[in-house]
Each structure stands twice: as structure tokens, then as C-alpha cells.
Amino acid sequence: MIYKVSYVVVGGSHPGAILNQDTPPDVGEEIQLNGERFEVVEVIELLPPRDDLAYLHATCRPVENAP
Amino acid sequence: MISTELLTRSELFAGLTSDQIERVAALGIEVEYQSDEVIVREGEASDEIYVVREGMVEVLVSEGAIPDVPGPPQMRSIVHLGPGQTFGEMALVDRGARSATIRCVKDGTRLTILRREELLALCDSDPRIGYPLMRNVASDLSFKLRHRNLRVRLEGKGGAP
Q1: SS (H, E, C) B58-89
Q2: Distance from B57 to chain A by nearest Cα, in Å?
Q3: What ranges do the domains of chain A cover?
Q4: pLDDT of B66-85, one tens digit each?
Q5: In chain B, what's the furthest Cα-to-Cα distance?
Q6: Count of CB atoms within 10 A of residue B55's CB?
Q7: Do A2 and B78 touch (CB under 8 A)?
Q8: What class has domain B7-116+123-153?
């Protein structure tokens, strides 16, 4: 299965991303979008799966850098 | 000949057999870009569709571009597209000019380029390729629209400006 994921970032200036990946994102997981770090706060199935594709949406927020 | 391995991971080729994907891939050329290189510019004529094999590109649209106002328009980044994504598909179906500028944001980004007329000719000659491929183009455009709608809804919760 290939997971086509719509990442929308809440807060910050990153425009979000769409990409295909081998595993689905998980809530609480930290991801990187072009070098910037984000925490996944919500994952929903955006559309029913078709062929070998699953369609997901993930809401993310920027990870604050430790002082 | 382009390797079809990475292309099979793109929605554009969902539902096609390996042989059918190879026939489409035979039309393509592979190119590589580095960060900040512009791949296509908004407003230009277009006759190609692009598949991101590796790396990342950024979709930018101009804001407040008024012909009588001097200076370059402000460009707004609206989404990044990673492996498996396509761009240029709007021109595939409507023959319009580029609706956005696409800029590479990761060194070594590899793309497959398919020329519009060649791809449409293949779709016309073999509907077993043409139908699923056009369905996939429609599905991808729908997904991008859903992504944009979600982003607009979430803007009120502190999303990107």
C-alpha cells in the first residue's frame, strides 16, 4: 500500500505538502518537511482507498526547538 | 529508457499494468534539478506534464499582480509536492497557460517529463491506458483541491497565511 498524504501545517509559514510514502503518519509522530520539523496532531482518511493507494490527511504543527 | 520502478509509486499510473506503464515511460525524459531552480513559470505556455520521482518542488502563485504596477509580483507558496506527485496536469486537460510557478526546493530532485501531445496520442490509441490515466489525473486534481480546502478551513485555527 502507498499512502498519499495531504499534510496541512497549523501555525508557522510552511505551506504544507502532498507526498506518497510507504507508511501512514501517526498522531504524535515527528516528521520533517524539507528540513523543518513538525508534530502530527491529527490523521484522517480523506478518501476511500483505490488500487494500492490510501488517501490520508494529516494536520501538523511546528516543533518548537529546545532552548 | 526510464526505469518504471519509481513511476509505479505515482497515482498517475494506478491501475495500469507493468507493460502499460513501460509504454507511457517510453515517452518520458528524466531531468534533475537543484534547489531554487525554476522548473516552470506561471503564465507560460505549457505542453508537458511532470512526475516527481525523488525530491521536492514548491508550487508558487503570484498575488496582486497588476499590469500597470511596476516591480515583480509577490509570490505565495501554496504547497510542496514530493515523490509520486504530478504537476502540469491542468494543461493536459485544458491547454491553458501555466497556472503556477514550480520551483525546486531540494537538491537532486528528479522528474519525469511527458509531452502532452505524445501522451494524448497514446491515450487515444489505447483506451485501456487512456481511461485509467485520465481518471488518475482527475483523481489527483480532486485530491489537490481537497488539500487546498482543508488548508483554508484550518487557516482560521492559526494555519499558514
Answers
A1: EEEEEECCCCCCCCCCEEEEEEEECCCCEECH
A2: 10
A3: 2-62
A4: 556 566 678 899 999 999 99
A5: 52
A6: 21
A7: no
A8: mainly beta
The residue behind cell 501555525 is A11
How confident is the model at residue A37, as a pLDDT?
94
Give the pLDDT band (50/70/90) at residue B160. very low
For chain B, percent of residues with pLDDT exceeding 70: 89
- Reported ipTM: the value is 0.91
Q: Which three cell numbers stand for residue B96?
A: 491553458
Average pLDDT on A6-31 reads: 94
Backbone phi and psi for residue A60, each to the nearest 5 degrees, phi listed first: -130, 160
- pTM for the whole structure: 0.90
User: Are the C-beta atoms of B142 and A18 separated by less than 8 Å?
Assistant: no
Q: Where are the alpha helices (DSSP H) in chain A?
A: none
Tell how far CA B47 is from the center of its chain. Answer: 12
Rounded to 10°, the helix B116-125/B18-25 angle is 140
Single-letter code of the amino acid located at B3: S
Distance from the A67 Cα atom to the nearest Cα atom in chain B, whole angstroms: 23
Residues 11-40 of A with CB under 8 A from B: 11-21, 33-34
Sole residue written with cell 525554476? B38
User: H or E stretch including B88?
Assistant: none
Q: Which of helix, strand or coil describes residue A49?
A: strand
